[in-house]
UniProtKB/TrEMBL annotation:
This is Aldo/keto reductase. GO terms for cellular component: cytosol. Residues 16-312 form the NADP-dependent oxidoreductase domain. Keywords: NADP, Oxidoreductase. It comes from Geodermatophilus obscurus (strain ATCC 25078 / DSM 43160 / JCM 3152 / CCUG 61914 / KCC A-0152 / KCTC 9177 / NBRC 13315 / NRRL B-3577 / G-20). GO terms for molecular function: oxidoreductase activity. It holds the Pfam family Aldo_ket_red.
């Protein structure tokens, strides 16, 4: 497994990270979740990403149990804070109160004394940025958080957050955006700003939530046992389940075949060609998916392959920086 440096920090992470959005505590049973984590560890994956809100906090608990007994120093455990985790008016957002309380709750569920990276899951325009960054800095100084990151912040927000972090004597080292062959909204603004400010990208949905595996066919309903066919999980991927998109994705199969790669491996290798990407987060419901995805680490796609991919996908690629997620 290839490792990469995260931002301008001293932290190395695995180029493939294992994430449990939509799976642990929800789409798959606990035994299957544990089997996928074991497969990730066997593949050399050391970086595990979750969030307090996933599966109503259950995902963190499942991951904590799955990693129990592993050498903590050999892992990089990431989680996030922002979305509601309870009924109270302070059970959400990036206030000092919610950040502090949510961090303590995450540590309990993950069965660890600290997290390697604590991420602001979205930008909170209702709270002064100074309050948010000071709360993160205090957790770093308390030893409960080693590094600080963000998720789906735009370029202006990243620049402001990085400047405040420096003033507070801590490092803002990462952004976690959606990024894939089909969704490239970070390329024009977020990536250049991140490079300037010393952040790397830890990208989610490199497979466009499974669409880039090629298993979804134009003119056909999603397979019943797939994410697209799952009532809750499928809702977030509808933008990709259009016939014009699915037709172009099928046209990528000869490229993958010429390289001896699966479609998933081609898609994951593609995001890892971006030098500002430190890791691609994969999710899985079966160990075999983990094994297949992990094999994309270290694959190099030369310039003519990247050009062929761009030619096939054409104008279905989303590039508008204004579409950096708020949802």
């Amino acid at each position: 497994m290839e490792s990469r440096r995260l931002g301008r920090s001293g932290l190395d992470i695995s180029a493939i990270a294992y994430g449990n959005w939509l799976t642990h505590g929800g789409q798959v049973e606990e035994d299957a979740a544990h089997a996928c984590v074991r497969a990730a560890l066997d593949a050399g994956i050391t970086t595990f990403d979750t969030a307090d809100v996933y599966a109503g906090t259950r995902a963190e608990s499942v991951l904590g149990r799955a990693l129990a007994g592993q050498r903590r120093e050999g892992l990089e455990v990431f989680t996030k804070v922002y979305w509601p985790t309870g009924p109270g008016h302070n059970d959400r957002g990036l206030s000092r109160k919610h950040i502090t309380e949510s961090c303590h709750a995450s540590l309990r569920r993950l069965q660890t004394d600290y997290v390697d990276l604590y991420q602001a899951h979205r930008y909170d325009s209702t709270v002064p940025l100074e309050e948010t960054m000071t709360a993160f800095a205090d957790l770093v100084r308390a030893g409960k958080v080693l590094y600080v990151g963000v998720s789906e912040w735009n370029a202006e927000e990243i620049a402001a957050g990085a400047a405040l972090a420096r003033d507070l004597g801590v490092q803002l080292i990462s952004n976690q955006p959606q990024y894939s062959m089909l969704w490239r909204v970070i390329e024009d603004e977020v990536v250049p700003t991140s490079e300037k400010e010393g952040l790397s990208q830890i990208v989610w949905s490199p497979l466009a939530q499974g669409v880039l595996t090629g298993k979804y066919l134009p003119g056909q309903q999603p397979p019943a046992d797939s994410r697209g066919g799952h009532a809750e999980a499928g809702g977030s991927m509808r933008r990709f389940l259009r016939d014009d998109v699915l037709t172009r994705v099928q046209d990528l199969k000869p490229i993958a075949g010429d390289l001896g790669l699966s479609m998933a491996q081609l898609a994951i290798a593609w995001v890892l060609q971006n030098p500002n990407v430190a890791a691609a987060i994969i999710g899985a419901t079966r160990p075999e998916q983990v094994q297949d995805n992990a094999a994309a680490a270290g694959v190099t796609l030369d310039a003519d392959i990247l050009a062929r991919i761009d030619e096939v996908l054409g104008d279905i690629v989303e590039r508008d920086p204004a579409k950096t997620s708020r949802g």
